[in-house]
Specification:
alpha/beta; OB fold (Dihydrolipoamide Acetyltransferase, E2P); five-stranded mixed β-barrel; 6 strands
Amino acid sequence: MRKTVSAFAAAALLALGATTAAIAQSASYSGPSTAPKAAASGVYSGPSTVPLMTVKQLLDTGKDDQHARLQGRIVSHDGGEHYTFEDATGRITMEIDDKKFPAGQTVSAEQRVELLGELDKGLRKTEFEVDRMALLP
C-alpha cells in the first residue's frame, strides 16, 4: 500500500511539473528568451481613443494605472509573462499574458507591434501590463 501511494504521489508531482512548465511558456513569441514557450488567442484591431505614446513619454510623465498605446518591438522574453519592449526612445518591461498574443501567429523580435495597456508604476518597479496586442505591417 505504501509503495502504491508513493508511486501515485510521484506521478502527480511529475504531472504538476509538466503543467507548470507548459504554463510558463509562450508559443507566440519567437525572439530571444530566457524561458520556455506556450499558447495564444485573437485580438481587437479597430480604432482606439487611448493615446499613442513613446516609452520615454510613458516613463517620464505616466501615472500609475494610466492607459496608453505603444508601438515598437518586443525584443526579449524575460521569463513567465515578462518581456522587454523597445521603441526608438527606450525600453520598458512588459507583462503579457500568453492569451494576448495574436492567435495562430508568431511574434518575432523584428515584428513591429502595437500594445494597448496600462502602466503599473510602483515603488520598486515600473512595467506596462498589456491588455491587447496587434501586429503592425
